[in-house]
Amino acid sequence: SGRRYEQFKSAAEFHQFDAQCxxxxxxxxxxxxxxxxxxxxxxxxxxxxxxxxxxVRSTGSEYVGVCLDMVNNVSLIETPQQTIxxxxxxxxxxxxxxxxxxxxxxxxxxxxxxLGEGLFxxxxxxxxxxxxxxxxxxxxxxxxxxxxxxxxxxxxxxxVYDEKSPVPPRDLALLIDWVRKNPPKKALPRTSGxxxxxxxxxxxxxxxxxxxxxxxxxxxxA
Length: 222
Hints:
Elements: H1 4-7, H2 11-35, E1 39-42, H3 49-59, E2 64-69, H4 80-87, E3 91-96, E4 98-104, E5 107-113, H5 122-132, E6 137-140, E7 148-150, H6 169-181, H7 196-217
Parallel strand pairs: 1-2, 2-3, 3-6
Antiparallel strand pairs: 4-5, 5-7
């Protein structure tokens, strides 16, 4: 899916899309089971963690699990720890990254940053996931772009939620408090104003910094 708050204009549109996705996975499950091939569904700015967990459990299949993106659900009013706590038990693949967050006038700015330069305790996270599954897969995702704008302070953002998919006020308060208490350690990466060559050089640099950090501090991944 795309970003829930950008792709859809109403909660009804999202629920229709959700039903189509669930039906597609139900159709695929017998093939997954036949060939013993796991399917990892990413929490890609569409489903809140509890919604995705419900979807995975509803399949009743050991071959359907989660591709855990540690960051994406910040855009759906969850702290990373809420997302990890909910989805880790069914995770079979990790979209591995670090994060920087900040405010802008309409909401939140969300950025991937080089490993070790953001807000995660990455060694602890890796250890916890490998304790669950020593063969856990981790894929570095260091996107180099302007910060993603998540307009949580605008009325249109909230059109994709309803009583069937509510956002508890407590979650909004927890997220805002978490962002306030965790300002960026340094300026968030940006590509605006750079030439294509400069953008490529920056992307190479940030990915290399992530690789260097992993080799130094995450020996089980290096």
